[in-house]
Amino acid sequence: MWLWGSTAAGLVEKKKVVVIGGGVGGSLLAYHIQSFADVVLIDEKEYFEITWASLRAVVEPSFAVRSVINHGDYLSNVKIVVSTAVSITDTEVVTAGGQTFVYDYVVVATGHVESVPKSRTERLSQYEKDFEKVKSANSVLIVGGGPTGVELAGEIAVDFPDKKVILVHRGPKLLEFVGSRASQIALDWLTSKKVEVILNQSVTLNTISDGLIETSSGETIDTDCHFMCTGKAMASSWLRETILKDSLDGRGRLMVDENLRVRGFKNVFAIGDITDIPIKQGYLAQRHALVTAKNLKKLMMGRNKGTMATYKLGYPIALVSLGRREGVAHFPFLTMSGRIPGWIKSRDLFVGKTRKQLGLKPTVT
Ligand SMILES: Cc1cc2nc3c(=O)[nH]c(=O)nc-3n(C[C@H](O)[C@H](O)[C@H](O)COP(=O)(O)OP(=O)(O)OC[C@H]3O[C@@H](n4cnc5c(N)ncnc54)[C@H](O)[C@@H]3O)c2cc1C
After folding, report:
1. Per-residue pLDDT reduced to its tens digit, 21-33
2. Which residues of the chain have pLDDT under 50?
3. Ligand 1 pocket: which residues have CB below 6 Å?
């Protein structure tokens, strides 16, 4: 591909950027750089999914029609490769399918390990199956009391008030990364909706099946279906045999500098959950993407390091929905709950906003 430039010949070749991972960070980055770079997006699946809408889709499968978006719908000028990246050398990225893609710049945005279908159609039908599973169950077990487990418990408790919902969490409080007040609000709200919350206990993951299950303290739970909402490993094990092996920290995260370049490399960036930046949230992965888009543009224009955009760690904020109308919000000096945070997040779960960020209409026709 060619770009008008100011060389004697009048044309300069566009730089090749390979983005690995088409999740929250990678998809937004690819969207922003497609106008000035020759971009390849390698993703294990053919679609981008708005993760913060996925729990509503369990109780309302049609919600996923707007939140599961084929990459081709918002990336008009990007080569989309549906495959798993298995290696990075000094010059190219290699996929499981044996394809190689030469790069000038590479961006790793592989987040956490997630086992989801490759095609949008399969993903939508998975939500239908989850919905039927919940609908036909008398009792639903949710394992994990972080934001995902709490939001899913809230969705089921509000939409299916007659189901017995049990939430097991291994820690002493829900929403551990949020403040104590928000944890207590979430606990009180779930309890008011008759969700049974069991703290300080775990369920052995490899022995779990529906029916009678035993927690770490020997308590027995009778359940018809379950959802695992526990933390996932970094999707970085494949990097251990690559040029980036020495840039991984002890937790499998890529160490980055303030410009989001992987330490030790001038042309390799990392964004989102895969980085060693402490807070793992989607809105931050989006910020990483925008900083990296700016930096790629500057580098392509030959600017030096002094002019590059830097990523600054902000205060952690959290907005957790509690069913369709309520929520709990935690800001640095304020925690609020009820209808206002519910109005901000819980109604549309930012789906329209996220679609607009990718140049799409909020609705689908
Ligand atoms: C249910 C749920 C609800 C959430 N709610 C919120 C919320 O309300 N607010 C918020 O801010 N954050 C939320 N998050 C967190 C947010 O989704 C993550 O922080 C965000 O997705 C991280 O973005 P990422 O681009 O780093 O990784 P991801 O979005 O996880 O994307 C990684 C991508 O890389 C692909 N991939 C992985 N390995 C490879 C490989 N080797 N080759 C090719 N492709 C690969 C994956 O298929 C995936 O598409 C939620 C997360 C979940 C799971």
Report:
1. 999 999 999 999 9
2. 1-10
3. 20-26, 42-45, 51-52, 54-55, 84-85, 109-112, 114, 147-148, 235, 238, 272-274, 280-283, 285
> Distance from the CA of 199 to the center of ligand 1, in angstroms?
26
Same domain, 217 and 266: no
Sign of CA dihedral 176, 177, 183, 187: negative
Amino acid at 165: V
196 and 166 in one domain?
A: yes
Instruction: Using the atom order of ligand 1, give the atom closest to the CA of residue 271.
Output: 26
* Closest residue to atom 25 of ligand 1, CA basis: 25
| 54 domain-assigned | no
Domain of 212 in residue numbering reads as: 120-231+317-357
Digit-coded pLDDT (tens) for 101-132: 999 999 999 999 999 999 999 999 999 999 99
Sheet bearing 196-198, strands edge to edge: 196-198, 164-168, 139-143, 225-228
Whether residue 58 contacts residue 152, with contact meaning beta carbons closer than 8 Å, is answered with: yes
